[in-house]
Design the sequence.
């Protein structure tokens, strides 16, 4: 069935597979209204029944030119209730009023009990075929292309919570394979808080807001969370990852993803292999710094959601490679002494390299948030032939939970019929009836065996690509509520992670623990957590204790000796800069030809330039503070340009790097500017620009400038010659150096731990 989508100026459907990606451009550039969708057009092309020609009824969520009731009756008015006279009482018989309000009353469905806040995108997965050696899964065969839908999320916050809180991020992928749905429901952290699903309600109750006042929202910095994780030390590893930069990703686009559990792959001959799944972002693994994350929560609570949608709309399609770590399927299920069934343990990549098996490209935004992002239903039990589960006790509980939760959340058992959840493979189940049944099933015999429907549908064995569970031997053992002895070590891998981080990353971990525990009221919880930290590393414990003003305890047991895994650090690597955002601060007297060419060079590099001017455009009337001049020149000659941000709307946190084109004088709306001369504002530079520069400097962002930029930097107390601060005569040369620095994500040397870095 043909879908209807708005087309861009070239006639291509933005972001749809098969259509040419539009060039990278500022996605929030002012634009006219989008062309109407096929089912929203005016009356001309419509048939007398109100349906557009050539489009089937099923393809349309809405059809015809006229507003109707849900029963299809056309309406003359939807603004006034039916009344006995204009001033009279509203009449109960107003069917349209009752239908409209009743539907509205039921517009919300229960939000997800965890991972309520999320954003998603459509895409395509192209298999390299390299996994063909270990699995018969058709979508992992060479060259196979599979449509996907990926939803990213935070765990703790409710649906309207802010994006950049410190939390684990969900990374759930639905593969619409030719053999049915495969869901890889992972996180951006490779380990989990608990080893057994029976503890899931405990960790979630502890992390969610306090039950009496329902605060704090979407935070782990509170007593119940730290109470639980300090008593339940198997959570130590995951908590340490949360306190690291991984807990505050820069973007969904710059997160790794992990399947966490060990899965079992099966090849065509029935041979099995154990694997762990990894998503590796092409854009690199980058994080925010804590102050930045906190500011964003106020300045732009939709920061991650917006970033994902803007990137896709601009044609900078986010990409990840899917990879597997491969282990022999031995009866012990151990690799180098690491228990592969323990979801609180990683296998360092240095011991088992991640082997790439395919490429994921997200290339289309959802058309409707509710229908797609909200109603998508993932399940770790959605498997295809060639992929099976292991006996990881956390995974076992998940296999129960996901189906169960959708029945409440989506109002019954027929949620697989929702368009976003519908398999692309042919479905012929014998599931019937139930709430919201939308299929009109035929046949008289929804049971097997039958003769009335000629025995249909038939069974498929392994040869016919039926799903056959691996006949794994089940050990004969007493029935117990116990964990294996190999699950008992809770501190070796946290120490491994800690020692794998660079000094600046460790500094961030220390600051995060100090912040979070500083928000805890109960002294006993802080002290207990310090004891946990002592078991990881004395420096970590002592530094956090110093920040809290408490004595640092000694480790109760000898510190394990570990081999660090450099792959776990985010610092010290070079990454592509495509899709990164560079702000260009302009002002009165800026050389606008340079601004134009620098902007173009940023676009040519696949990055997003945002011009920041004293006020918005387009110019009309009298110029104030030279704004008119800026915009006139920007719009003059060639492609029209406008300022996408003003000194009032811009904040440093939106940019990965800043360029200063001249000395930006105070805008007309700077604090008190209408009543005061520039000098009264503390200088000739707009105070909001000074704030932006000071923040960008503190957050380790590259800063460049030319012309009068030196004055702005000096007033922002940024030392000349500081690392990552570049002043030059030529904008293009400054940009080249800024982009080089951006490849390292931040100017790490600016952080206090820098001395230890070298
Ligand atoms: Fe879960 C949602 C990831 C353990 C029970 N989980 C959910 C989502 C992600 C994960 C990404 C959001 C899916 C979406 O976007 O719709 N969960 C994980 C990972 C886990 C994990 C990586 C450990 C390795 N989860 C886990 C356990 C249980 C659950 C142990 C219960 C025993 N998870 C759920 C749930 C959710 C869910 C209650 C809420 C909404 C949903 O399923 O659809 O069933």
Sequence:
């Amino acid at each position: 069935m043909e879908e209807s989508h708005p087309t861009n100026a070239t006639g291509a459907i933005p972001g749809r597979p098969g259509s040419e990606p539009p060039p990278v451009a500022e996605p929030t550039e002012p634009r006219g209204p989008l062309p109407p969708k096929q089912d929203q057009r005016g009356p001309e092309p419509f048939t007398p029944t109100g349906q557009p020609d050539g489009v089937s009824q099923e393809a349309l969520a809405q059809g015809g030119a006229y507003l109707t009731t849900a029963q299809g009756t056309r309406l003359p008015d939807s603004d006034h209730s039916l009344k006995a006279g204009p001033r009279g009482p509203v009449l109960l018989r107003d069917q349209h009023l009752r239908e409209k309000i009743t539907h509205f009353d039921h517009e919300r469905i229960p939000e997800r009990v965890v991972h309520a806040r999320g954003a998603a995108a459509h895409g395509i997965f192209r298999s390299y075929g390299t996994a063909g050696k270990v699995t018969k899964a058709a979508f992992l065969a060479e060259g196979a292309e599979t449509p996907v839908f990926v939803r990213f999320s935070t765990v703790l916050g409710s649906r309207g919570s802010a994006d950049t809180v410190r939390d684990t991020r969900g990374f759930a992928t639905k593969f619409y394979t030719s053999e049915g749905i495969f869901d890889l429901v992972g996180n951006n952290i490779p380990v989990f808080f608990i080893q057994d699903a029976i503890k899931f309600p405990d960790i979630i109750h502890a992390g969610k807001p306090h039950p009496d006042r329902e605060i704090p929202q979407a935070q782990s910095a509170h007593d119940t969370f730290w109470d639980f994780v300090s008593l339940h030390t198997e959570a130590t590893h995951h908590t340490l990852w949360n306190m690291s930069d991984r807990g505050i990703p820069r973007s969904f686009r710059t997160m790794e993803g992990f399947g966490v559990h060990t899965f079992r792959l099966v090849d065509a001959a029935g041979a099995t292999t154990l694997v762990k799944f990894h998503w590796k972002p092409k854009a690199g693994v980058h994080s925010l710094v804590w102050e930045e994350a906190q500011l964003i929560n106020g300045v732009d609570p939709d920061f991650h959601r917006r970033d994902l949608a803007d990137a896709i709309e601009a044609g900078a399609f986010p990409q990840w490679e899917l990879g597997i770590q491969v282990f022999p399927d031995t009866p012990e299920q151990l690799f180098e002494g690491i228990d592969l069934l323990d979801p609180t343990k990683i296998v360092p990549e240095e011991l088992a390299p991640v082997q790439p098996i395919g490429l994921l490209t997200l290339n289309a935004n959802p058309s409707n948030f509710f229908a797609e992002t909200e109603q998508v239903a993932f399940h770790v039990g959605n498997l295809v032939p060639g992929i099976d589960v292991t006996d990881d006790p956390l995974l076992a509980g998940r296999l129960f939970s996901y189906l169960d939760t959708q029945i409440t959340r989506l109002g019954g058992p027929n949620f697989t019929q929702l368009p976003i959840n519908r398999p692309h493979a042919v479905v012929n189940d014998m599931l019937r009836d139930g709430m919201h049944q939308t299929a009109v099933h035929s046949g008289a015999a929804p049971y097997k065996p039958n003769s009335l429907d000629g025995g249909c549908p038939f069974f498929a064995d392994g040869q016919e690509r039926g799903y056959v569970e691996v006949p794994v031997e089940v050990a004969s053992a007493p029935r117990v509520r116990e964990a294996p002895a190999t699950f008992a070590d809770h501190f070796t891998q946290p120490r491994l992670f800690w020692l794998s981080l660079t000094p600046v990353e460790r500094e961030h971990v220390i600051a995060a623990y100090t912040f979070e525990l500083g928000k805890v009221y109960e002294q006993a919880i802080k002290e207990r957590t310090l004891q946990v930290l002592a078991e990881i590393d004395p420096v970590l414990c002592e530094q956090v204790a110093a920040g809290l003003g408490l004595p640092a305890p000694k480790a109760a047991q000898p510190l394990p000796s570990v081999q660090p895994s450099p792959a776990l650090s985010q610092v010290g690597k070079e990454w592509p800069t495509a899709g990164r955002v560079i702000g260009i601060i302009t002002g009165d007297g800026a050389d606008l030809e340079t601004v134009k060419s620098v902007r173009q060079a940023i676009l040519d590099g696949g990055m997003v330039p945002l011009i920041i001017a004293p006020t918005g455009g387009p110019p009309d009337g009298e110029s104030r503070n030279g704004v008119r001049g800026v915009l006139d020149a920007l719009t003059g000659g060639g492609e029209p340009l406008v300022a996408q941000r003003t000194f009032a709307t811009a904040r440093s946190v939106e940019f990965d790097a800043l360029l200063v084109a001249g000395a930006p004088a105070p805008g007309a709306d700077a604090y008190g500017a209408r009543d005061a001369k520039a000098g009264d504002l503390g200088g000739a530079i707009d105070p909001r620009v000074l704030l932006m520069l000071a923040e960008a400097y503190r957050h380790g962002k590259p800063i460049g400038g030319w012309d009068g930029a030196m004055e702005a930097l000096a007033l922002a107390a940024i030392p000349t010659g500081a690392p990552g601060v570049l002043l030059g005569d030529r904008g293009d040369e400054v940009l080249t150096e800024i982009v080089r620095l951006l490849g390292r994500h931040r100017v790490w040397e600016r952080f206090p731990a820098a001395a230890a870095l070298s």
